Amino acid sequence: MKHRRRVRRFSRRDVGFTLTELVIAMVVLGVIASIAIPSFLGSRNNSYDKEAQSSIENILKAAKFHYQNQGDFSDASSAQCGDSTGLAADLQKLEPGIDVVVSSVSSTNSRIVSVQAVQTWDSTGGLLGCQGFYALALSSSGSCWAARIILEGKYLASGSVSPVVVNQQTNTSNNAVTTWSALAVNGNAFGVLKPQTSAADGDNTNGLVAIITACKAATHSTGVATTSSNYIAPSQFYTSWRDTVSGGTASSSGSSGSSGSSGNAYAVGDTGPGGGSVFYVAAADFTSVGSDCATACRYLEAAPSDSSVSTWATSTAFCYAAGSESGTSDCQRNSIYPNSAGQAASRTASNAIGMGMANTIYASARITMAGSAAPSAYALGKAWSYTNNSKTDWHLPSKDELNQLCKWQRGQSTTAANQAVLCDSTGSLNTGLNATGFSAAPYWGSSETGISTAIVQNFSTGAQILTWSKFDTGYSVRAIRAVG
What pTM was estimated for this model as a whole? Predict the structure, then answer.
C-alpha cells in the first residue's frame, strides 16, 4: 500500500514543471539564442558576400581574357571604352553563368555584375588608352562589392586629377585605413559599400536603399577625387577583399588621430569631412580658434575648388591707422591688427599653422563692421562665407598653412618634419594626391605683413611674397579648414 502511494506521488510530480523551472528554462534558451542567432546571421551574410565576390572574380577572369584578345578593355565590335553594351555582351559570352550588365544598370543580386571600361592617363596627362576595368555586384547582405583592374596607367582622370591608389586596411572591421605609401599602383584592387558603416568603406550614410541604387559601375569608375554619398573613391580600394594588418584596432572612431570633432584618422589625399582633400597632417594636436576642432585639431583640409576675388581687403573705412587702436581708416591701406597687442607681434603670430581661422575671423569682423563690405568683395570674406558638405568653418590659410597647401598640390612633402621647407617649382600643378583645380597664379593668405600688405604665394613657382599690396586685384582664394 505504501509502495503504491509512493508511485502515485511520483507520477503526479512528473505531470509538469513549476513556474520557477519554466523561467529558468526560458532564460537559458534566451542566452543560447543571443549567442547562436548573431553567429548564424554573420555566417549567412559572409556566405552571401562570398557569392558576390565569386561572381566578380569570374568576371575579372573573363575581362583579362578579353584584354589578351582585344589589347585593351574596349569592346570588340566598336572599340568603345565606357558604358558599352558591346563590352557587356563580350564578357557574357565568356562567362554565360553570370548576367553582365552595362555600367549604368545597377546590380540587384550576386549573380548580376555591372561593368565598365575606363581610360587611364600618365602623370603628364598623356592618354594611355582603355586600360581600366570595374565590376560590381550586390550581395544579399546589403553590401555592394567592387573590383578594379588597372593594367597600364597612373591616373583615372585627365590632367592627373585622381591617381590610382590602393589603401591598406588596418583592421578587420573596415573602419580605419592608412594609405599605402600614397603610390600609384597597377593591378587588382577591391572595395565595398556597407550600409551604415564607417567612411573606410565609402560614405554610406544613406542606408540600404541608396547602396542598392549606387551599386553600378558608372557610379564608382569616374575617378573623381572627392567622395560623395555611396561612392567608393579611388583611395578606398584595398589590395584584397579582406586586407588586414596585425595590431589594428576595431574602434569605430578610427585607429589613431586626435579626439577632435571628426574622430577619424586621415592621411594626405583622403577626403575630409568637409568634402575636400586633406593636405596636411600635424605631428600633434594644434589649436584653431573658431574651428569645429578648437584645441584638438590634427589635419588641414582644402576646399574642392578655387574662388576668384578682386582684393585682399576692401576700401571700407573701418581699419586701424598705423600705430593706432581706433579710427575708421581704409582697410586696404591700414592695419587689421590692433596696436595694443603690438602690430608687428600680432602679424608674426598670425603666420603659424592653426592661425588661418583666427586671422579670417578677426579681419572679416574689422572689414564688415562698417556695414559696407559684402563678403564676396574681398578674399577673407570669400573664404569666411564658403560652405561645403554642411561645414561652415572654412577660412583663408595663414602664411604657413598656405605654404603646405602649395607643396601638397605640387606633389611635395607636407609632413610635419618638412613644415619649414618652402614650396618650390619641383613637380607640376595638381600632381599632389587628389589635388584639383589649382591655377598657375598667386593665392592669397590671411596673414597680414604690413599696414597695407598681405601674404601671397605663387603656386606656379612656389615663391611666397610677403609684401603684396592688399588692393591688388585678380588673385585666387582656396578656402581651407582645420579638422580633428
Answer: 0.51
